[in-house]
Amino acid sequence: FRHGMAAGETTFDAAAVEKLNRATGEWQLLEVDVTGDRLAARFNGTEVLRAANIANPSGFIGFQAETGAIEVRSVAIREGRP
Asked: Cα torsion for 31, 47, 34, 10, to the nearest 10°?
């Protein structure tokens, strides 16, 4: 996550991700909120990541899988809070 970023506070709950992970063939839900230099991520409804002192450059959003192919069903990008 912090590759190429300045040092900063980051907390990630890998045990929660493992527990919340749905079975193969079921969709996972990942929600990411970025406000200023702070980021929070929820996995299947539970917050699992917080980071501070992140850069917010313009450009592309990418998806990466460490163990093979991924499928994406729906992507929504919103500016500001609903």
From this structure: -130
Between these two residues, 26 and 56, which has the higher pLDDT value? 26
- C-alpha span between 21 and 44 (Å, rounded): 8
pLDDT digits (tens, 9 = 90+) for 49-63: 999 888 766 778 888
| 79 against 74, higher pLDDT | 74
Q: Which two tokens stand for residue 71?
A: 């499928």
Sequence-distant (6+) residues with CB within 8 A of 43 are 16, 17, 20, 28, 29, 30
